[in-house]
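User: Show me an example of a complex going from sequences to structure tokens.

Assistant: Sure. Here are the input components:
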Amino acid sequence: MPSSLLGKGAISIRNVTKIYDPEGVNVMAVDDCSLEIAAGEVCMIVGPSGCGKTTLLNAIAGFHSVTTGEIYLDGEMLCGPEKPLAEQGADRIVVFQHGALFPWKTLVENVAYGPIVQGILSKKEAHEKAEGMLTEAGIGDMSQKYPGEVSSGMARRAEIVRALINDPKVLLLDEPYRAMDALTKSIMHEALLEVYDRTKVTIFFITHDLEEAIFLGDRVVVMTTRPAKTKKILDVNIPRPRDYQVLSSEEFRLLVNEAKDAVHEEAVKAFEAGERELA
Amino acid sequence: MLETKAPTGFALTFYRWKKNLKTPTPYLMTFGIALWIGTYYLFCEGWELPRFNKIPGPYVVITEWLSRKPAWGISLFTEDYHGHIVASCRRIVIAFGIATGIGVPLGLFMGWSKKFKDYSFPILETLRPIPILAWVPLAILMFSGLETPVIFLATLASLFVTTLNTLLGVESIDDSYFRAAKCLGAKSSDIFFHVVVPGSLPFIFTGLQISVGVAWFSLVAAEMVSGEYGLGYMIVDAYMNITYVSMVIGMLTLGFAGWFTSALVRWAGNRMMQWRVRALALEGR
Amino acid sequence: MASGTNLSIKKRSKFERAISSLTFWRGVVALLGFLVVWEICSRMERWTAEYQVVEHLIAGNETDINKVVNEGDVLYATIGEYGTELNANREMLKAWNEKNSPMTLKDFTKSFVQQINKEFKTHSANVMERDNNLFLIIIGNKPEAFKTEMTLNDKELAGDMKSEAFKIAVPWIGKVPPPTEVVEAWTEIIGLPGYWESWYLSTGRVFVGFLVAQLIGIPFGLALAVNRYFRDIFFPPFEVLRPIPPLAWVPASIVFWPTTEMSIAFVTFLGAFFTIVINVLGGAQSIDVRYLRAAQSMGATQWHLFSKIILPGTLPSIFTGAAVGMGITWEVVLAGEMISGGGGQQASGGLGFFIWSSYMGGTVAQVIVGMISIGIAGYLSSSLIRFIGDRSMPWRRLF
């Protein structure tokens, strides 16, 4: 498994089942799902819309409880039978689908927020560090602007900086680049890879874009339609650091095709079920 | 780096104004107002149509309003007129202040704690359908004097609006902001002050604008039924004394006061929500 | 669902789900608690006032206390509504002096106390000496606050209301009759046709004003939204008049219209009209341009655009405006009824008049009955609008 020894934050998902109870109808979102993610691995989760990928992420982040099963982070139990809801903490930071930079704070205030509320840094130190990290990410000029004033790409980049300033063990990304055009997306990908190469943080990345998954990931986990189970795990052995030229390689093409076959079958099943997506 | 600063405040208003003059809109608007005043004049004063001739026309009203020696006792220069305005405005300030001071925290807590909402919301919803006017006799009984019941009625009316809009504001905040804050290690109190309060501000200010209007509405009603000063009383008093010109002056003054206070609230809102103003300005609004 | 073995899928009805939710029961507890607190607050004064004690200072030093009573001295007291007096006449003094030493003020007070205790069933009196002061104490048994006055030879004797320490009167709410009395008042009038006639009259006024406002307001709002020139001309006067509170129109309306009934209807119409127009205009302007373009690209005529896109697209706002307008309409009708009813004008009857006349008649419990009735009527009318809204917009019912 291509994981770095520098990395931290190994996630172990064991036999997790999640059943929702909206409007009196029990819906099984995740069914007996097990997955081992090594420290410093980029694990991409792929599956049809509304299959329960986000449910898994929510369970790790501590937004939702699990019905049965356990999740461990670096050997410590996050949630299990006695404690179905994991505690939320700055060791696992989520980057949301539509972005969740606080619109009422400037970019630098957003980035400095974590260290300040955790009481790690004083306000002044936090702002200095945040300015530095924003400049490193190439958006230092924008630090005094409100999120509503910058492009979605910049906002998303700032959001990742906001996560990294807390030095998390795991970065949980929930389709962060979903609404972006292909060109912006490729720039975002390179930026994320650059961040990864620098920090070796474990990345749990949900997407339904196969090329994105293979370009970024060490492993691609294909999920079945609801209830979600692991259907197939693809190892991506393209060496790092990667750049956009990887996209035109034969190896890449073969992997995409392999993934496509697996996903397509599930997508058809999901489409025929015709259920409205849950979140 | 190219500076892309959106014009704000006065510069923006001026820019829009200049651009606007090139469209037919301002001319049509002037025409609309002129048409309205003209019709009003002709119906009431020019042709003196039946029934319309009982209502004072624009010419009489304006001359009376601006006269230093008004025939019916109320004009821009009489102390009575100022007294009525001050009395009403004072009541509005007190009522609106109390309603905001109670309503905003109440709404915020209701949105923040489900338990608190579960207990307080049903009571609020039970009392809310009762029109404010129906409270008049009870208010007179409960509070002594003439001033307190009037203020109570105006406060009650805007309290409901403010509380519900604040609650709505908290509930409109996207879940991911709460989650993001918790992820970043925010405690409950941090979330309250850094997510709940700023996130609900847009709704709070929409609510406050409505609430100030509702406060005027109930104040006028209360002053008409019981009171010895204020614009609502002035209108009824003028009606009783058959000085209809003062009555129309009172109505127009109320309209202006209502518009002015609501503009004031909007201005305060924009001052407090620069993040929103700037984002909206970029969208050309 | 603690274990993975028992994952049955079951469906529950809306009612079952409500019953089983914590929110529902908390609401019930809150409302019951509200009633109980209200009941306690308004009864508090009467409960505690049972112990009302008034001390009247009869004499402030030893000499005065032991002063011999002269013929013609009079002690007088009013307790609540009734008064009583003891006259030191010749016969009485004679009867006393035969048995005892000459009658002192203290003895005189004691016999007055006996007289009070004989005459009043609801109050009792007592004599008390403290620090060379002689007091006559009146204690109320009646569960109501009472006032007392005492004179000695027409000289007022200071009364000290010791009861204030006992009487717990809740401010404001304490003056409102308790829920039980409201229910009692309601059961008394619920059978009377006059009460239901008030319902009928008010509801009629509300619906007439409301419907006229809809009939004029919706087309006007749509016209403002659809035609730029129309909006430029007619919106400014509308905006000038809009901030004037509807009730400020009442006197002018009474002057203008021949009957009070018509003037109430006019003000009611105005109240709803401004809200509806603003909502319709806002709703129509917020329709996504893509829908219009899509329809145009499929060859829709102007009429189609209006009737199939703009009108249904505005419906949600129309119903929002209608719900708000309905609230204002009730408010205005009530005000009209109270003002005209209070002034003894022609248009009488209606729930507003009911409240006002109950207030004038001093039956506060009935005022609250009227308030609750209006609350119910207002709630029912907005529920009706919501219901019609749900029916006419099936695409809005997602779950």
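The lines above are the inputs; the final block is the predicted structure for all three components together. The radius of gyration of chain A is 19 Å.
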